[in-house]
Write a structure and sequence with these properties.
The protein contains 4 helices and 5 strands. By secondary structure, it is α+β, with helices and mostly antiparallel strands. It has a 5-stranded antiparallel β-sheet. Strand 1 and strand 2 form a beta hairpin. Helix 1 crosses helix 2. The longest helix has 21 residues. The mean pLDDT is 94.
Length: 144
């Protein structure tokens, strides 16, 4: 595990604990199966920024209005690629149990979701084709 992966794991755990507390969920609820990528990615992005690790927080949206945030471990000014190392803080929201965050190159992350049986529309929401904002610093797409 790289230093960045370790920090992502640690900060994702803290963000999940805070979210669980704020939502009145049990302390050990696995947010990797939750649907609050907005809060999780925002909190982890901010924590990483305080460690001088700048991430790109990609907003993905499909034509049906579904949206999702991913953290790309790449500079904010770089164009996204399928080889970007990305972190999905809640990749298991389509099933009834979690499994932890996914941290891998974009194409590998999408392949892992496919192999786990994720719906095609869910997997596609992590693709380059659905990126609507390369770096979004709003808490969620509905905040101005």
């Amino acid at each position: 595990m790289t230093v960045t992966q370790g920090l992502m794991q640690e900060f994702a755990r803290y963000a999940s604990e805070d979210l669980n507390k704020n939502m009145g969920l049990p302390a050990g609820y696995d947010q990797s199966m939750g649907n609050r990528c907005d809060i999780l990615t925002y909190d982890v992005m901010e924590a990483m920024k305080h460690r001088s690790v700048l991430l790109r927080r990609e907003l993905h949206q499909d034509e049906d209005g579904n949206w999702h945030y991913l953290l790309a471990n790449e500079p904010r000014y770089c164009e996204p690629t399928d080889d970007d190392l990305v972190t999905d803080l809640n990749p298991w929201q389509w099933r009834t149990y979690g499994g932890g965050i996914l941290h891998a190159p974009r194409a590998e992350l999408m392949q892992a979701l496919n192999e786990a049986g994720a719906p095609d529309t869910f997997v596609a929401l992590r693709s380059m084709a659905t990126i609507t904002k390369i770096h979004d610093t709003r808490i969620n797409p509905f905040f101005k």
